[in-house]
Every structure is written in C-alpha cells, then in structure tokens.
Design goal:
The protein has 14 helices and four strands. The protein is mostly helical. It has one domain (about 20-390). The radius of gyration is 25 Å and the shape is globular. It comes from Clastoptera arizonana.
C-alpha cells in the first residue's frame, strides 16, 4: 500500500520523517509567536484594566491562547505522525488477512476526508475574512460586527498612534483572522482519524455478525480476540498522541459556549445570540458524538458473543467477553475524562439546564439595553477611517 504524505511515496511508512525545514513549520511558528505576544498584551490589559471591561480582554485572550496551544501540540503530533500512519497500516493489513475489506481503500479515504477538510477550512477562512473586511458597512448587522471585528479593531487601536506602522497592524490583523480557523482544522484532523478507527470497528462487527448463532472453533475466536487487541491498541495509541488536542478542542467548545451565554447578558438582540448558541452547540455536539462513536462501536460485538451456541463456547469466547467488558476503549481528554455517550448526554444536560435557569430568573430581560453594540460599530468605523488616513 502506497501513501502520499507531503509528496513522499513509499510502501513502508517508517520512511516518513518530520522536518523542521518547511514553510508550514515556519508559518506555524510565526503564528505561535504572534499568539504569545497577543496573549501577553491582553493579560496586561486585564491587570491594568485598559479596556474597562476585563471580560472582553479575557475573551480575546481565550480565543487566541487555545489555538496557539493547539498549534504547538499539532507540531508535536506531526513529529509522531509516521508512528500513527504505521499503526493504521498495520491494522489495514490485519483487516485484509481476516478477509475484511472496506468499500473504499485507505488511501482514497484519506484523500476524500482531507479534501473535505481543506474545502471547509477555505470556506471558513473566506467567510471570516469577508465579514472582517466589510464590517464597517451600514447594511451589516451590528452584532455580527461586534463578534467578528474585535480582534482586528483592537490591533489597529494598539498601533494607530505609532507613525509608519500601519502595515504592521494590518499584517497582525491578517494573521489574527487565521486563529478562528485553527481549532476547526484541528477538529477536522481528529474527526478524520477517529472516523477511520470507528470504521475499522464497524467492519470488525460486520465480520462477527456473519457467524452469529453459528458453530465456530476456538481458533476463530482467538483470531478475533487478537484482532480486537490490535484495534484497542490503535485507540490507545491515538489517545496517547491526541489526548491533549482533544482536551483543547473540548475546552475551546466549552469556553465558546460560556461566552455565547454571557452575550445574553450584554446584547439586546437575544434572537441572534440564541441562533449563535445553536450553531456552537451543534458543532460541539457533532464533534463529541464522533469521538464517542469509538467507545460505542467497541461494545457492539457483545450481542454476538452472548449468542455463541453451547457447543462452540470455549475459553477464548469467555476471555473475549471479559476483555470487552472491562477494557475501556475510548478517547479521553488528557485522561481526565473519557468521551462516551454518557459524557455527551451529561454535558448537554448541564448546558441546557443552566440556560433554562437563566431564562427562568429573567436575567436577560432585566439586563437588556445595558450595553449598546451600535456604539462599538461607530468606534469601528472611526478607527478604520483614522487608520486609512494615516
């Protein structure tokens, strides 16, 4: 099987190597340095209360710090990428020896999923760029301008008094537009790897479904149990390399939900905030359900194991049942929590409960009109006009 990773074509994935001498690594390091500088600036702004409202600086710091950490961890994952590809290659060969063939070859799956990821990333980047560029238009919703324009406006305000550095402010603003797409790309990589792993479990379960209620030998169940060990080891390897990224993505989703709920207290247009909350929760729910699918599929073979006839029941079947019961096959967040369906239900139950409590006590209705986002839009126009004149 030939893989194409960064232009390298080899049958042996062990020949894949990570190199620091590439434009992608150089660009990532620049983004990391810019992110660290911006986080330091916003942290100082919180201490000296430069912006008057420390929640704004905290929100900016949050939306830059986590993507910056994600880039650092992604570089670490890129260094161990040959190991991950080797594990997938080994599982693919194991599936082939068991006569379990997928509908699409592994290489084609990677191409299709990466193409979808790149398309969504380009679409998101284009959307954020367009909104940031046209946010001064009168036809634009002021709440949209508030949400998407804070980073660019603050950078321009930071550098507008310094002569001859407008290009510097604009370049920093262009780099900051990249930050909203970083977490999306990291989520896409995680979804691709976990989806392929889940597909392996589904193929394994289909193989077992063919022998349900049939007489089988102990040799067959020993091979099945060893194959299950291989799949479990693949999940453990993925968790070892990706658990920090999963933790950062989940933390970013929770923080994003918190700040959207906080917008209920400061924005008069609750319909827009409710729509934004639905988008955030839907995106987080999709990611968590994909992550939890590994644990769900790893338990589906129990129905087949319980249906083994008496004349085929042996020690290998018993060991297989114990292993499926007591071995936790799931993706975790830095081993602080395991993502399964129970975890997903608990998270959404808590979010919906506190959202309904906020509406029940009438917090939104009491605080409507306290902050007017139209004032910020006027400030946005003024800052951009002064910048263009200078």
């Amino acid at each position: 099987m030939k893989l194409k990773v960064l232009g390298i074509r080899h049958c042996d994935s062990s020949k894949l190597k990570f190199t620091w001498k590439s434009m992608t690594t150089f660009y990532s390091l620049i983004i990391v340095l810019v992110g660290i500088g911006l986080c330091c600036h916003y942290f100082i702004a919180i201490i000296i209360k430069e912006n008057g409202n420390p929640m704004d600086s905290l929100r900016r710091n949050f939306f830059i710090l986590l993507p910056t950490l994600s880039i650092v961890i992604s570089i670490r994952v890129a260094r161990s990428w040959p190991t991950l590809i080797y594990q997938f290659e080994r599982i693919e060969r194991k599936m082939y020896t068991l006569s379990i063939k997928s509908h699409l070859p592994f290489k084609l799956k990677i191409y299709i999923l990466l193409s979808i990821l790149i398309y969504l990333s380009i679409l998101t980047y284009f959307y954020v760029s367009v909104v940031s560029l046209i946010k001064t238009c009168d036809a634009l919703n002021p709440h949209m301008a508030t949400v998407y324009g804070l980073q660019v406006v603050h950078l321009i305000k930071l550098n507008i008094e310094l002569p001859g550095v407008t290009w510097y402010a604009m370049s920093l603003a262009a780099i900051c537009i990249v930050f909203p797409t970083i977490i999306i790309q990291v989520e896409g990589i995680l979804i691709i790897l976990i989806s392929i792993t889940t597909q392996y479990f589904k193929q394994f379960n289909k193989k077992l479904e063919l022998v349900k209620f049939r007489k089988t030998s102990s040799y067959f169940w020993r091979n099945m149990r060893e194959s299950y060990n291989e799949l479990s080891h693949l999940v453990i390897t993925l968790d070892q390399h990706l658990c920090i990224l999963v933790f950062l993505v989940v933390s970013f989703s929770f923080g994003n939900t918190f700040f959207v709920l906080y917008m209920f207290l400061t924005y008069p247009d609750s319909k827009y905030v409710l729509f934004l909350l639905c988008i955030v929760l839907g995106k987080m729910g999709f990611f968590l359900v994909i992550m939890a699918s590994v644990n769900y599929e790893s338990k589906q073979m129990l129905s087949v194991l319980y249906s083994v006839p008496n004349n085929s029941y042996n020690i290998e079947v018993e060991r297989f049942i114990r292993q499926v019961h007591f071995q936790k096959v799931a993706i975790s967040g830095c081993r602080l929590f395991n993502i399964d369906r129970e975890f997903v239900v608990t998270v959404f139950e808590s979010i919906i409960t506190y959202t309904l409590i906020a509406f029940q006590f009438g917090i939104v209705s009491d605080l409507k009109g306290r902050n007017n986002p139209s004032d910020l839009c006027i400030e946005v126009k003024k800052v951009f006009n002064d910048t263009l004149k200078s």
